[in-house]
Predict the structure.
Amino acid sequence: MPSDPQTTPTRNALRGQEANVASQRRRWSAAVDRWDHHGVLGLDKIISAVVDETAALHPGLAVDVGAGTGAIAIPIAASCGRVLAVDVSQAMLDRLAERAAEQGVGNLETLAAPAERLELAAGSVDVVVSNYALHHLLDADKERFVHQAAGWLRPGGWIVIGDMMLGRGGDSEDRAIIASKVGVMLRRGPAGWWRIAKNAYRLVTRTAERPISMAAWVQLLEAAGFVEVSARRVVNEAGLVKGRRPGPAA
Ligand SMILES: C[S@@+](CC[C@H](N)C(=O)[O-])C[C@H]1O[C@@H](n2cnc3c(N)ncnc32)[C@H](O)[C@@H]1O
């Protein structure tokens, strides 16, 4: 992790960032159908946890970053004044907008933009929320994102992050998560063995997925000045971390 997230990325870092954004956009624009039916992938518990945490804050404006087809943005809309759903993939947002219209959700807008280049007015947002998206960012961009989010939030506003939270096997918690995932996949036979190889490759090379541990997220939030930072594991690899920008509650 770099030591100063305020620093403008170097030219090399910018090239890496651009390549990552382009590859995420390509990958996810081709995965809309698969993701829209991802109930089967077992993410329901983390989605419910993130929705419940965010809805309970009754934000005037909630910004969902990496919103996908709306698993968070659509259900929270009933408890928010307004929701802005941001995603790098326009195709994902088109599906999100269709689903919102089908469900009669009228207080939701979409914005196609990478998290790395998102610009929002200072102090204009009540809650920044993100589920299973920030692990796609490079580590330096995760850190910059958290700092920027602190600036977009009004004093007293919250950041709520649900994500795959594990390091690269360096501590016992990581190893327990990895062992449990491997156990589940081994029991699935050859299809599971293929997934073990694919996931191991991704975890080691960090080409598309770059999760960090829950402790690392807590550190990032604290370093960005968030207070009342708390973290909990929701299920296996999935964790939820949240923090409040200092200042009076709304
Ligand atoms: C695993 S899906 C999660 C979608 C949704 N949050 C959910 O919980 O169902 C990851 C989403 O992050 C988006 N994404 C990936 N990289 C991104 C980036 N750099 N900026 C914004 N969105 C990004 C993808 O397009 C995709 O929609």
In short: The first strand starts at residue 61 and ends at 65. Residues 11-165+211-244 form a domain with the Rossmann fold fold (CATH 3.40.50.150).
